[in-house]
Amino acid sequence: MTFSNSDPVNVAFAGLELHGMYISGANGNAVVKLSSGYNICVPESVCTPAPERSAAAPAKAAVEPLKQDAKLPLLAIVSTGGTIASTVDYRTGAVSSKFTAEDIVRSIPELADIARYHTLQPFNVLSENMNPAMWQELARAVHDEIAAGAKGVIVTHGTDTMLYSAAALSFMLETPVPVIFVGAQRSADRPSSDNAMNAICSVKAGISDLGEVVVCMHATSDDVACALHRGTRVRKNHTSRRDAFQSVGRGPVGVVSYPDGNVNLNGDAVLRGTHELRLFDRLEPNCGLLQYYPGMNPNLFDAFSGCRGLVISGTGLGHVGTDCIEKIAALSASGTFVVMTSQCQAGEVCDRVYETGRDLLAAGVVEGGSMLPEVALVKLMWVLGNTSRPEDAVRMMQTNLKGELDYDLWREM
Predict the structure, then answer these.
(1) In this structure, are residues 300 and 290 in contact, taking their beta carbons and an 8 Å threshold?
(2) Residues 82 and 186 sit within 8 Å (Cβ to Cβ)
(3) Is the CB of residue 382 less than 8 Å from the CB of residue 280?
(4) CB of 215 within 8 A of CB of 160?
(5) I need a surface site. Which of 3, 33, 280, 328 has the fewest CB within 10 A?
(6) Are strands 39-43 and 94-97 parallel, antiparallel or unpaired?
(7) What pLDDT score does 413 carry?
């Protein structure tokens, strides 16, 4: 029997009757994607064709409206896609984003006991496809949900670029209520999925006393707690671990224990009601981020000619090779706002210690303090979108606006 990719097959093997999709075959063996989502390799001889689902199969019953308790607080769930809203596509064997915000609520029954929900889905993408225009659309959607009465907003998002989106909303929104970004490292159909626990903890945080933008993800690899990371001080530090997200240069602003759902906030957490709702959604997307490496060709800076802004991720205190300084000076002279950050995980940029740093300052570089390079890029887009005078842009980049720096105002070292 010859099979083609994506053919439905039945597998009789080791006393088991299994069903899946044929992926590939070689040397008498077949790779089959099981309905559980896992792949197996079996002799092709144990595979038989499975009948296609009948086109005349009865239609599914109409989905009943969500049953919600009117006495519970109202939360908004804004779904953008990502693994938390994904399953395995058994046609291709790949994970794809399919679930809506309402699907997520239906699939995790515990959520109905915590709050009632208004759900919306402004777009449905894997997070590598996010862009500044989507950040703006997302910020407007979150703003409108809060204005309409939501006591908190849950944003479901892919994990790969969640830190960029969380930083963007941190700068674009003044929020009186929690805005919780949540995702999953493993899709809902995996036995080790973290989507349900992360979602439950995010909703608990959404009705808490928090009043800022945070990322809610597993605090450890075990199912004991989720950490609440400030949206401007968080990074994804592992490709696949459930506790991939870590606060950088500081601790989380809070922890949600599981399964009891207790929310413990630290003393520096911004509390509910501290700020009035405001939206500042202008961005300048024509900005770039470049990581310096030893021996880097200075001509790479030419790629950013015409950009409104450039963030450099430099070494140590904020350095690049001396042969790059002329190119940086030319960019700055042509109107590109250049910010220096560090590849280090902690500490501040200071370009006044070594000769190279002083030359960079003379070339027009602005020190980015302790900002993460990714956050500095998002902040620079926001700053350039909201000011026209260079001196104002310098002041804003060096002022701690949303916890992105480790101090309130720029200080001399």
Answers:
(1) yes
(2) no
(3) yes
(4) no
(5) 280
(6) unpaired
(7) 34
